[in-house]
C-alpha cells in the first residue's frame, strides 16, 4: 500500500472511530504531539490527551459520515456530513500525516449557513 | 502525467487564473455545463457563462493564494487564503474533474469566524 492509500485509510479510520466513540482506536491514529486547530475560533489543542478529552466531552448526539475523502501523499481532506439531533451541517477537515503514519495535525472548519448578499439573484438558483 | 497530477495542475491553474482575472484561461479549465455550489447559502449556478459572470461581478479587491492543494484522481480540495482589502479569511473548495480533464463541479465553503462556546477553555489555547 503506498503512502496515499495509507493516508486514505487513516483518514477514513479517523472518522469511523470517532463516529463509534472507539477512543482507543481513534487515539492510536494520532501522534502524541498532534495539534488540533479550529481557525474560525482561533482555538488550538496540543497533544493527544487534550484532543481526546475535547471529543469525549463534546456535547450533543453528534454523528459523522464521510461525503468525500481526498488523499494525496501525507495530506488528506475530509468533507463530512455532520448530524446533531435534527440539525445537519457540513465540515471540512484537513489532515497531515507524519513519517510514522500517525496524524500530526487536524484543522477543522465548521461553515455556518448564511443569507446570500443581494445583487446576484439573476445568476443563481437556490436549492 | 497521471490523472492526479493533471488534477493538481488544473486546481492550481484554477486559482492562479482567478487571481490574475485571466478569464479566457480560467474559462478554458471549466466544462460547459460546470455546476458551482455554495452550500452555506444554498446557491447554485449552472454553466460556465453564469459562473464566469459571477466571478467577474464579484465585488471587492479580492486576492487568492493556495495554502494547500490535495489532489486524488479526479478530485481535488483547495485550502485558500483569501484577502479582500484588509480582511482575510479562509476558503475550502472541492473540485471534480471530468473524463476530458475539465472541471465539472466546484463547491465553495466560506467559513466565518465565531466565538467559541463556553466550557472548553481548560482544553484549548487561543491564537
Question: Key terms for this structure?
Answer:
6-stranded mixed beta sheet; alpha+beta; globular; 3 helices; Nuclear transport factor 2 family protein (chains A, B); 26% helix; 7 strands; 127 residues; 43% strand; NTF2-like_dom_sf (chains A, B); homodimer
Task: Kindly summarize this structure in a few lines.
Two copies of one chain form a homodimer. Chain A has 127 residues and is an alpha+beta fold.
Describe the structure.
The structure is a homodimer of 127-residue chains. The N and C termini of chain A lie far apart (40 Å). Chain A has a single domain, classed as Nuclear Transport Factor 2, Chain: A (Roll), CATH 3.10.450.50. The first copy, chain A, is α+β, with helices and mostly antiparallel strands and 127 residues long. The longest helix of chain A has 17 residues, at 3-19. A six-stranded mixed β-sheet of chain A has the order 2-1-6-5-4-3. The first copy, chain A, has helices spanning 3-19, 23-28, 48-57; strands at 30-38, 43-46, 62-72, 75-84, 87-97, 103-109, 125-126. Chain A is 26% helix and 43% strand. In chain A, strand 1 and strand 2 form a beta hairpin. Chain A binds chain B through residues 4, 8, 37-46, 50, 53-54, 57, 68-72, 75-77, 79, 90, 92, 94, 109-116, 119-120, 123-127, and chain B through 4, 8, 37-46, 50, 53-54, 57, 68-72, 75-77, 79, 90, 92, 94, 109-116, 119-120, 123-127. Chains A, B: Residues 13-105 form the SnoaL-like domain. Chains A, B: It comes from Hamadaea flava.
Amino acid at each position: 500500500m503506498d503512502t496515499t492509500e495509507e493516508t486514505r485509510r487513516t483518514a477514513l479510520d479517523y472518522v469511523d472511530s470517532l463516529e463509534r466513540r472507539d477512543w482507543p482506536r481513534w487515539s492510536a491514529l494520532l501522534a502524541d504531539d498532534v495539534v488540533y486547530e479550529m481557525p474560525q475560533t482561533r482555538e488550538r489543542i496540543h497533544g493527544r490527551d487534550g484532543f481526546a478529552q475535547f471529543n469525549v466531552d463534546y456535547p450533543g448526539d453528534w454523528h459523522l459520515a464521510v461525503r468525500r475523502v481526498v488523499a494525496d501523499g501525507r495530506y488528506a481532506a475530509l468533507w463530512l456530513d455532520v448530524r446533531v439531533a435534527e440539525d445537519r451541517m457540513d465540515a471540512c477537515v484537513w489532515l497531515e500525516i507524519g513519517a510514522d503514519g500517525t496524524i500530526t495535525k487536524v484543522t477543522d472548519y465548521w461553515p455556518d449557513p448564511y443569507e446570500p448578499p443581494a445583487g446576484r439573484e439573476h445568476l443563481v438558483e437556490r436549492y
